[in-house]
Design brief:
alpha+beta; about 50% helix; globular
């Protein structure tokens, strides 16, 4: 199965996008939406107690969460969870895919959703871009995630979402980096680096630090994992400096959220 992601300006727009995907033949239980907000009448979430807790680590409370997520359904079937994501705030995960994605790290919502999802979807969850989804939701936008049976259906789905005014994942990722690039270039240059030459590896390291399995961990702690994923690129000075800055960025985002709260 192939993942399809579209980012919309509102939850209502994302739901309309989901309706379009259903007309293409994508089953409802393979469609999910992440959006800012809560649904406190159905699910409550515990505020994380440590900066290093992963997205969705807040343990879901209350008996209704099991009933809500135990349904092998999507937007219309009532599978809804409200999960407190560090540095983002309350995120409404409508559909099992979203709950499983944000539940990475042990949240009950993710575990309950994972049990109900097809194995192919669980293995193919687009977790590498979680920081892009978080940034979108932080800015009040809604993220639609779906799984198509094959490349052809996935391409049709992306085309229809684009027609419905969805921003692509690639575009959102570039927009996110453009917002950070000026400050990162200044920092790297002040420390004697050539950003024009090293930007690609620097950015690779920065984004690596934001992966759900690595965030909150120092470069030294995850060297084996980095070598497995990035090979010798992770040994370069640019990657290392980018990783350290990404690590700092994630910590600053969480601290800023706490201060605002």
């Amino acid at each position: 199965m192939k993942s399809v992601v579209g980012i919309f300006n509102s939850l209502a727009d994302a739901k309309r996008g989901a309706a379009i995907l259903r007309t293409l033949g994508i089953p409802e239980n393979r469609i999910s939406v992440l959006a800012p907000g809560t649904r406190e009448s159905e699910v409550e979430a515990r505020i994380p107690t440590a900066d290093t807790e992963q997205p969705g680590m807040g343990q879901a409370l209350g008996g209704t969460v099991g009933a809500a997520l135990g349904v092998a359904g999507g937007l219309e079937a009532g599978a809804v969870a409200s999960i407190l994501v560090p540095g983002v705030g309350p995120v409404l995960a409508i559909g099992l895919i979203g709950a499983a994605l944000l539940g990475t790290g042990g949240a009950f919502a993710g575990a309950a959703a994972g049990e109900a999802l097809e194995e192919g979807i669980m293995k193919g969850l687009p977790r590498d871009e979680l920081y892009v989804y978080e940034d979108a939701v932080r800015r009040g936008r809604a993220v639609l995630i779906a799984f198509a049976d094959n490349d052809e259906m996935a391409e049709r789905a992306r085309h229809e979402l684009s027609r419905a005014a969805a921003e692509s994942l690639d575009s959102a990722r570039e927009e996110w980096w453009i917002g950070l690039r000026g400050a990162e270039e200044e920092h790297y240059t002040k420390n004697g680096g050539d950003f024009k030459i090293d930007e690609a590896k620097y950015r690779l390291g920065f984004e690596a630090a934001l992966h759900p399995d690595l965030r909150g961990k120092s470069y030294e702690e995850v060297i084996p994992s980095l070598h497995e994923e990035y090979g010798h690129d992770c040994d370069t000075t640019a990657f290392r400096k980018g990783y350290d800055r990404g690590h700092r960025y994630q910590k600053d985002v969480v601290e800023s959220y706490k201060a605002a709260a």
